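Journal club prep, shared notes

We agreed each person brings one worked example of a sequence with its structure written out as tokens. Mine is Putative prophage tail protein. I'm keeping it raw so we can talk through how to read the token line rather than staring at a rendered picture. Sequence first:
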Amino acid sequence: MTANYPASILPPNATAVERAIDRASAAALERLPVYLIRWVKDPDSCPLALLPWLAWEYQVDTWNINWSEQKKRDAIKRAHYIHRHRGTVAAVRHALVDSPFGTDIVEWFNQNPKGDPYTFRLNVYQNDLPVTEYDQQDLKLAVLRARNLRSWFSVHVFGRLQGTSYAAGYMYATEKITPRFVPLQVILSRYELNLAPGDTETVTVTILPEYAEDKTFTVTTSDKTIATARIVNGAILVTGVKRGTCSVTVTTTNGVSAVINVKVVAVMKFITRIDNASRPLFYVRMDEDFTIDYGDGTDSREYRFDAASAVYGWVIPTRDVVEGEEYTITVKNTETASFQRTSGNVSVTLNPVQEIILLTGERDNLVSFASGATGLYKVHAGAFDDLPNIQKCTSIFRGCSSLTELPEGLFARFTGATDFSAAFYGCTELAAVPDGLFSELSQVTLFTSVFENCTRLLSAGKNTFRDCAAATHFTSAFSGCTSLIDTGTGIFDGCVSGNNFGYTFDGCRALTTLSADLFSDVPGGVFTAIFRGCTALTQLPPRLFRHCLEATHFGGAFSGCTQLLSVPDEFFKDLPLVNHFGTVFSGCSSLVKAGKAVFSGCALAQTFSSAFYYCRVLEEVGDDIFEGGVSATTFASVFNSCTALTALPSFVDCNKATSFDRAFYACSSLTAVRAEAFAGKSLVTTFYYAFTQCTSLKSIGAGAFRDCSSLTNLTYTFMGCTALVSLAGDMFAGCSKVTNVTGLFNQCSGLAVLPEKLFSGLTSLTAMGSTFQDCTALTALPSDLFAGCVNLTSLTLTFSGCTALAVLPADLLKHNTLLISAGSTFYGCAALVNIPPSLFASCPLITAFGATFQNTGVVEIPENLFSGNPLVTAYGQTFRGCKNLRSVPAGLFVTSINATTFTNVFAECIALEEVGAGLLNNLPATTIGYLFDGCVQLRTNVSTIFNLDSYSTIVTTTATFRGCSAITGKGLEFMGKLPNVTAHYYAFYNCTSLDDFADLPGNWITNKL
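Then the structure, token by token:
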């Protein structure tokens, strides 16, 4: 038969053992109350036996096992209220509800007379019950748990006894009348007092007549906030409290009175050393009615002025003072006195102030108050406590080079201060900043250069600027503090308006650590060069600026931190408003690693120029370092001179980039430019010197610069990449706006092969100056190399110095019909022996062949080489130095009907023996200077080369045949064919094989007549 078990919750695949256990325990579990825990925890339903434990859990203050059950439950229920209101009077009253005695709480201000502040009295009424020691202990503990920690109390127990009492008494009175002598006059030693706040003056009192019987008197002050007065040994002590005027009235018992007029004035008190009695003590407005106490307690006017202007001047003592002595000077009733040394164009030397003891008044600024006081070494505690209106404190202690320490709370009362710029600038002996020096000065906006150049300062202090909620500028605050080793604790806490930290710690070369929460409350703004030149800094806290969500500029922030080893991952991540990271880590010459996603999410960052410039040992850069850099425009010199860098990071998100000028210059460990490294960067315009001197760079991947549709400048991009051996044929595909490839592969001495159509898409290119200059491994050129460069006009030095280049395709320039200049195109190509006859056939616009084949290995020149170039006007040095050239065809220049200049064309062709007849016939040649200069093997008769009767256009023959010692013929005959020649020095110098050499004029052989 089937048992009536409660429904099981086991899964269908439960084992037999599990089912057996389920059935065995089901009935017992079903009988358990569902809300057991809630039932036990409820004061109304909890079993009686468990109530003490529930009371313990609720922390019931008073408990008695003899209470009734309901009273125990009520006590537990009240506990919640007591704990929520603990520290209040209501909580104490509730805590005493369970006491058997009546209680009443009397707070100190309700007592008569008033009790001590923050105390109360507990009146306990016996109610005819005995009060045991345990009862008193319970009362005490209940109150202690409910009161606030500040308040203390006393316990008074009252009993009461009722009954009837009887009393009786009597009284009597007598009267005795005698004559009395009363005071008639009060005479005071002083009726007017000028006091400084805190000063005390004694006024003696004389009651007349002398035989008056009752000479007692009282004193009252009209305003105790200005001055107080008290009677001491029959005299009155008047003490100044704060600036203002009041009166002190002295009154006898019979109403006779006298009045003291009290004026509490502004004061400046200091200690000075008299170096020269004729030097000033201080600077002041000359129309102030002030007195000077020279330390003898006498307020005098023993001084004169040295006027600085119509209003202000310096105060010089007229009292006899001893040079070399120190004086404590008290100046009363001045609101303008200071230790200013300069006024306009006038400067003076003061007797040195050494200590500032007190300054009070209603003045509103302390600008340059003690600026330049090089002898000042101490400012007393409380010196500025009574200056309620101060706003500007610019340069207050600037240049106080002997000031070694500051008192705590020096500016605590400057609640309206707004500007502390350069306050301690150049205080070179100041070693420490007191805790909270400027804390809670909520109106200050400027702390610019506040401690700049305090070269002995060791720490930025604790809570230095805490809660300066309006402060915006901390520019150069600790700049030049060369001994500063840490940034203190919480110095910028609560600086919720801080937006300019440019150069704040610039040049702090001893700074070793940065507080991780240094900028935890700072919204951001400008951080330009904030830690520049901190040469002892080795590491950075992770995400130091994570809270600075309004930061905009980190230019040069860590520039020159030469000991910094690494940049943490995500260091600047997700700072949404930053637009500038230029030179941020420039010159960090020990930096080995820049972590992952360092600039990730900085969506508005535009400038990364020179960000890691000259980080010479930087080996590793996170591939995603620029992730999310969707606004980045310039990466100029970003990794310039990072000689240990082995790989490029990704720029995949940087599609607004416009410049990679010198981006990887001299990255001599870089081995490859990855495929599509810069592909699709449609706004980039320049890669000027981008990979110059990357001496380990071996390959450039497919499409590396593909579709850089705005790119115009590839000047010297890969110059000096001596290990480069592989170029992708499509690396420049889609770069149709490139106009400059000057020196593009200059000195790529390992480059032996060029891909066909390397420049096929460069349709805007007009010149290729030095593009492959000194590519000494290059042996041949593909025929379609320039096929797409249809607007090419110049090939100056394009293959100059390619000493291994031996083969030129005949159709190399087939598509370059706009070519105008081929200057030095193949200069120094020593392996080039043969020139295709049709090389320039498609270039009818060429106007000059300057040094085109100079110093090549050419043996023979095709006669029709220039037949398609009728616009040529000059052939300067075209074949100069071709040491293997043996002959020149007669028709070489036959179509050059516009050529006028043939300077140095075959100079130094030392193997040249034959020149075709009439080489320059029918040409408008004007200059043939140095034409065959140094051709020592030339044997052709001079009259054969120039076989016409006259060459009337030639005017210059300087050194035309100089050194042609084998040339034959008659020089005089040649001279006769040149009726208009004007310059001919050295024309036949050392031409000793001429038939008439001995008869030639001296100025045709040398430069002498």
